[in-house]
TrEMBL record:
Catalyzes the transfer of the diacylglyceryl group from phosphatidylglycerol to the sulfhydryl group of the N-terminal cysteine of a prolipoprotein, the first step in the formation of mature lipoproteins. GO terms for biological process: lipoprotein biosynthetic process. It is found in: Cell membrane. Its EC number is 2.5.1.145. This is Phosphatidylglycerol--prolipoprotein diacylglyceryl transferase.
């Protein structure tokens, strides 16, 4: 094997440390998703007659829904026996273990609570939030790359990555599945933002959300065929856990798109429902 034909990846996941405190690429990229996303969402909300105060509140709901959902998703989907036997370990988020499918469920629930409390059309909220969620998802996958984790099977393709810091597989070129997902989701972000910028309030209710869920989890389902399984129990399954969890979300996205096709009507201006309300 000619090692020079492949990409040697030996990035330190830690940017710097001060005493016991360390700043890591993953954490920085995770946070940037919320910071940049908040600015984009503010532009969207103001353009459609909402206030930036709405965005401040929804961002808090998003952070809580994402972190709690992602952590609980990992504990319940990938290692329930361990975490149910050691519940205090669930709180140790800094040790790693976040699941994107759990984050999706957490976000959907958090935004439903937000919409109900502040009198927003739930689907209007989802249609706008998925734009920034797509961007955040791309940044998180770049964080996985910086951590040299969640990579793919061996490959002889010239863009295969040799993940030097993964001791178990350090000499074998592998599919950089983190980059595959990051590029796919960033492309989805560009598409969703372009559709919003072109049509804004005229967008059929549910269109952006349906596109996001269908494309995101279809691509996730397909890329999983190139990935190493995250847990040993997945080796005994026909599909891995990520694929099983993606299937109902793909179906949900297709159902939403079907109803959009059958009845393409925009939401109320500014996403208002019931009485007009601005946070």
């Amino acid at each position: 094997m000619n090692m020079l034909t492949y990409i040697t990846w030996n990035v330190d996941p830690e940017i710097f440390s001060i005493g016991p405190i360390s700043v890591r690429w993953y954490g920085l990229l995770f946070a940037l998703g919320f910071v940049i996303g908040q600015r984009i969402l503010s532009k969207i909300y103001v353009a459609e007659g909402r206030s930036e105060g709405d965005v401040d509140i929804i961002t808090m709901y998003m952070i809580i829904g994402t972190v709690v959902g992602a952590r609980l998703g990992h504990t319940l989907f990938y290692a329930p026996d361990y975490y149910l036997s050691n519940p205090i370990e669930i709180l140790k988020i800094w040790e790693g273990g976040l699941a994107s499918h759990g984050a999706t469920i957490g976000i959907l629930l958090a935004l439903w609570l937000f919409s109900r409390k502040y009198k927003f059309d739930y689907m209007w909220v989802l249609d706008r939030i998925v734009i920034v969620v797509a961007l955040g998802g791309a940044l998180i996958r770049l964080g996985n790359l910086m951590n040299s984790e969640i990579f793919g099977h061996p490959t002889d393709l010239p863009w295969g990555f040799i993940f030097v810091r993964s001791s178990e597989f350090s000499q074998v070129p592998r599919h950089p599945t983190q980059l595959y997902e990051a590029i796919t989701v960033f492309g989805l972000f560009v598409l969703l933002y372009w559709l919003w910028a072109k049509y804004k309030a005229a967008l059929p209710r549910g269109l952006l959300f349906g596109i996001f869920v269908t494309v995101l989890f279809t691509s996730r389902f397909l890329i999983e065929f190139l990935k190493e399984n995250q847990e040993d129990f997945e080796n005994e399954l026909v599909l891995n856990m990520g694929q099983f969890l993606s299937i109902p979300l793909i179906i949900a996205g297709l159902i939403v798109l079907f109803f959009v096709w059958r009845n393409p009507k925009p939401a109320a201006p500014g996403g208002r429902t019931g009485t007009s309300a601005s946070v």
